[in-house]
Design a protein that fits this description.
The protein is an alpha/beta fold. Helix content is 64%, strand content 10%. It is built from 22 helices and ten strands. It binds adenosine-5'-triphosphate and magnesium ion (MG).
């Protein structure tokens, strides 16, 4: 419920619409009552030639009621003063009232729907924005289907309550008290009788008949008794016949059968009596009301018009009260949905800017891992005392077995995760002291999973960055060895590549992803198996094309094919969460360790 109220709190932004909605609702309620009140002159003046309007009202009433009484009466007098005695004028007023009422009814519904829908739109925007700042770990712990369901189904429930029903309910909440005040002003006793006595009268009848019927039907459905007797008799048919138990069994069966018959009959009797009883009670109540009204009318305390207005008003209470009663059915799921939605909207980002975080503008000093320990789950260390320096302008390769933690190392640089111990620094600053946006702007990352959109080749490379010339796009494509295949596409750079790039081959997709990183022109470029789905020849070609680009940048390469990284300035072998060997290719071969064994294995195969 707290969350639901908070959702309503969000609607504050649309205060003007709420104000318009509430104002219109008040106008509608007052116009409704005013319309009932017009039944008085219609009956007393339009339909009856000899009007009894104007007879003094002398009810032994308290001050409040007298005041209310006065209200209805004054309203009528004002009306009379305004339109005179003219019957036509009254009919015109009726028409005007109804037109005004419905005009505002439209305004009320429109503006309440407008604010409900706008609130939902804002909330959905906030949900999506908050999803985008979550770390990958957030999504590892949740099913994507559940998240999507919240963004759609739960919003649907909320929408039903907020945009479709809330307006009606608010209108009812305004209308009901206004009608009640009006009814009291017409006749206190009759109002009390209608509002309190009617439910008192009818409720027991309804309740009693419902319970009796349920019980009777329950009894009737106890078919097991009959089934049992049949089952026993048939199963033990030989015993029944030999011991002469036929009579005994038949009696037992008859008893059970008769019980069912009576139960069924009782249920139907109750059912059959329901409508007649209700009608008799209803007629009794109606006659009582009419008798009371008649005595009032004769005594001059009420006119026929008053009575008609009262009946109209009392009847008009029926639907709003029924709707209010049912709103709960819509409200409950909406409250649950609001809770589920707010859970996502409120989810704190595990990684965010520290207060006073500074923007990094240059990365002199490269990237440094100092005594880094990291675990995805408590005590399951992936990195333990990991030390590595990627000097500015050098290409460093990270190798190691599957699951050794290479991709984990990569994710610590743009702070997809924060380290538990030690520190990662970029340009001499701990990454946690830098703003996320500025840090990530320094880093280009290409992995095996790249996000391609169902859009043109060009916009997949540019990715919404502004001020990028066609020349720059082509240069980036050339650096990624992609320009050749792009030129071969039906519409070149304007070819639409399908959802996830389905219309391209795996290698073409990878080249596009690399071109996208190149155009970002990042000082630090990370390639995590970025070329591994290519054949060795294409891979070599890409690296040759990238050569000019990698100059003066800090590059981190991860590749299973060791031939790819042979020319790296530094090769680090990752083992047991730390760097086990470090050096260039020749040094590591000479060291005759893990790296040499890995190279020999690959050459053999
Ligand atoms: N999101 C995660 N939650 C929990 N454990 C994870 C998560 N991602 C990776 N791991 C675990 O961390 C360890 C290192 O994974 P990582 O992806 O860094 O290995 P890798 O060296 O890149 O392997 P590969 O060469 O197969 O890509 C693995 O044991 C893996 O099971
Ligand atoms: Mg990996």
């Amino acid at each position: 419920m707290r969350d639901f109220l908070r959702v309503l709190g969000l609607a504050k932004r649309h205060g003007a619409w709420i104000l318009l909605a509430v104002t219109s609702m008040v106008v509608v309620a007052v116009a409704t009552v005013f319309a009932f009140n017009l039944a008085r002159p219609i009956y007393d003046q339009v339909l009856r030639s000899s009007s009894s309007v104007g007879t003094t009202l002398e009810l032994p009433t308290s001050g409040v009621v007298a005041a209310l009484d006065g209200f209805a009466d004054r309203a009528e007098q004002a009306l009379q003063g305004w339109v005179g005695e003219s019957r036509v004028a009254i009919l015109v007023v009726v028409l005007l009232t109804i037109v005004v009422k419905n005009l505002f009814a439209f305004l009320a519904r429109f503006s309440s729907a407008r604010f409900g829908l706008a609130t939902i739109r804002d909330l959905r925007d906030r949900l999506f924005e908050n999803l985008l700042v979550q770390t990958p770990a957030y999504f590892h712990d949740r099913s994507i289907a559940a998240l999507v369901s919240r963004a759609t189904n739960d919003f649907q429930l909320l929408r039903e309550a907020l945009a479709e029903r809330l307006g009606d309910v608010a209108q009812d909440l305004v209308t009901v008290p206004v009608i009640l005040v009006y009814l009291v002003s017409l006749d206190l006793r009759l109002t009390v009788a209608t509002v309190f006595a009617a439910p008192l009268l009818f409720a027991p009848v309804v309740h009693f008949s419902r319970r009796m019927r349920a019980r009777a039907l329950q009894a009737q459905e106890r078919t097991d008794e009959i089934a049992t007797v049949i089952d026993e008799s048939v199963r033990g048919i030989r015993a029944v016949q030999i011991f002469g138990m036929g009579r005994f069994m038949t009696d037992r069966f008859r008893l059970a059968n008769q019980r069912q018959y009576l139960a069924g009959l009782f249920a139907r009797a109750i059912q059959a009596a329901n409508a007649p009883v209700m009608e008799i009670v209803g007629t009794f109540a109606a006659l009582a009301v009419i008798a009371y009204a008649a005595s009032q009318i004769t005594a001059g305390g009420m006119t026929l018009g008053d009575f008609s207005a009262f009946i109209l008003g009392a009847y008009a209470l029926y639907n709003p009260l029924k709707r209010l009663n049912k709103f709960n059915l819509v409200l409950q799921p909406a409250v649950v949905a609001a809770g589920r939605i707010m859970e996502i909207v409120d989810a704190p980002a595990a990684v965010c800017d520290r207060p006073g975080a500074r923007a990094v503008t240059e990365v002199g000093g490269g990237v440094r891992f100092e005594n880094v320990s990291f675990a995805y789950r408590p005590d399951q260390w992936v990195l333990r005392g990991f030390e590595l320096h990627l000097p500015l302008g050098s290409t460093v390769a990270l190798v190691g077995g599957s699951g050794a933690g290479k991709s984990t190392v990569v994710q610590l640089i743009p702070r997809f995760f924060d380290v538990q111990e030690g520190a990662v620094s970029v340009g001499g600053h701990d990454v946690r002291d830098l703003t996320l946006a500025s840090l990530r702007a320094q880093i280009g990352l290409v992995t095996q999973e790249h996000l391609l959109f169902d859009d043109t080749v060009r916009s997949n490379i540019v990715c919404g960055r502004e001020g990028i010339s066609d020349g720059a796009v082509e240069a980036a494509a050339t650096a990624a060895d992609a320009s050749e295949f792009i030129r071969g596409l039906p519409a070149g750079y304007d070819t639409v590549i399908g959802e996830g790039g389905v219309k391209l081959s795996g290698g073409q997709r990878q080249r596009l992803a690399i071109a996208r990183a190149v155009i970002q022109d990042p000082p630090i470029l990370i390639l995590d198996e970025a070329t591994s789905s290519l054949d060795p020849e294409s891979e070599t070609q890409i690296w040759r094309a990238l050569d000019r680009f990698t100059h003066h940048r800090t590059i981190l390469v991860i590749a299973h094919r060791l031939a790819t990284i042979r020319r790296a300035d530094l090769i680090a072998v990752l083992e047991d969460g730390r760097v086990a060997e470090l050096g260039n290719h020749d040094e590591l071969i000479a060291a005759d360790g893990q790296y040499r064994r890995m190279v020999e294995m690959q050459e053999l195969s």
